[in-house]
Structure formats: C-alpha cells, structure tokens
Amino acid sequence: MMKRLILILTYILMLVMPVSAHNYSADEMVNINVYEKINPAIVAIDANLSDGFSAGTGCVVRGDGVILTGSHVIEGAKDIDVTTFNGKVYKATVIAKMGKNKDLALLKINPKQQLRTISFGDSEQVKVGQKVLAIGNPFGFAGTLTSGIVSRIDYAKGRIQTDAAINPGCSGGPLLNSQGQVIGISQSIYNPDNNISNIGIGFAIPVNEAKRFIQTANLDKSRFASK
Questions:
Q1: Which of 11, 19, 58, 179 is most buried by its number of CB atoms within 10 A?
Q2: In this predicted model, what pLDDT tens digit does every residue of 157-205 receive, in sequence order?
Q3: Could you give the residue numbers annotated as active site?
Q4: Residue 30 DSSP SS3
Q5: Distances from the Cα of 193 to the Cαs of 35, 157, 186, in angstroms?
C-alpha cells in the first residue's frame, strides 16, 4: 500500500513540475530562454532598391521604434519595410548611418504600442570559445535561431568571428551571449568560392561599436543604457 502511495505521489509531482525541469537539458534551457527573451525585439527588414531588393535583420533598441541594423542592408533603398516578430509591417525611415567598414544604421518606425528591446552586453568581455547564439531571417525564414562559439577575435579589423550560422538575411541581427545580451551585430560570411550560403565562418561587429554609434546619433542617450 505504501509503495503504491509513493508511486502515485511521484506521478503527481511529475505532472505539476515545470516542463523545463524534466524535458530539457541545462544547455537547451539557455537556448530557449535567450530566444524567448530576445526574439520579440528582432525584426525583419526588406529594402526596395533601384535594382532589386535587400533583406536583413534589425534589433529594436528603443521601445518607440528605433532599430539598429547593418547599413549595407538599406544602402540606396527607396522604400524600407520593417516586420516585427508578430507579423506587423511598418514603413521605416533612416535616421543615422555609418556605412563602409563600420556598417551600421539606425531606422525609425512608428508602432502603435511600445516594442520589446534588446539588452546590450560588453564586447570587451568576449572570449574565444564562449557560447553564442544568433537570431536572424536567413532566406526569409523569420526568427531563426542558430548557435555556436566565438571562433576568433580579429582585433585589427574589429570583428568577432563565429561558427554560428549567419546566412543572407541575417545581416544586422544580434550575436548573443548566454545571458541574452547582444555582444555583436551580424555582418558578413566568408565565401571564397562565391557560395552565398554559410560555411561556418561568419563575422559580427562588436556591440561596443554599435553603442558608440548610437550615442553619437541625435537621440536621447539616456534611453540606451545597458540593461
């Protein structure tokens, strides 16, 4: 009787325990938690160019609709559409741009309600070998999460190298640490054979460069403090 009671109590405990406690590993929970925290602050960007279209990703850095992305994503755009994680589409204007090697831009949309925002990390603290995650819109597959490590830090060129998959459409998206803080902005991939798909060598602009860019823009600096 006692043994049966113990089995029943064990079964009841299993039913009421959080799913995360017995269905996912610790590493999986890191991925899940980071994605659920940050994905609502990530947008898809579609730019109408004179000779076609450019697609990329953006990070919401202010709740009233200020978005950080790569300048090459919107370079020469006549019209820019921003799609939030819940499918709402807004027209965007460019409010600041660096271009060339820095490759950063700020866009502004006018959402009907406050948007979720990213959290900034410190790229000076990045270490080769640490786990990283990237969120982007590769080939139009919105809200795609990939993971890997920091493979190398190119101090001369100011780039974080990673093997987390970064494909066309991911430019301007976040490279994240395990706490869900943005440590880099995805920029490019290495493709010596002209293959436009990821081969395991991608690059991100250190987030401290992005923070300096934001601070020099004509915006309320106090709204961009790290969280």
A1: 58
A2: 999 999 999 999 999 999 999 999 999 999 988 776 665 566 789 999 9
A3: 72, 103, 171
A4: helix
A5: 32, 22, 21
Running DSSP on this structure, what letter comes out for residue 116? P
CATH of the domain spanning 119-212 = 2.40.10.10
**Nearest-CA neighbor of 159 among 170, 144, 181, 175?**
175
Integer Cα distance of 212 and 13 in angstroms: 50
Question: How many CB atoms sit inside 10 A of residue 115's CB?
Answer: 21
Over residues 123-167, the pLDDT tens digits come to: 999 999 999 999 999 999 999 999 999 999 999 999 999 999 999
Q: What is the DSSP letter of 172?
A: T
Nearest C-alpha neighbor of 183 from the set 98, 119, 227: 119
- Token match 């000076």: residue? 124
Q: Considering the domain delimited by 39-117, tell me its CATH architecture.
A: Beta Barrel (2.40)
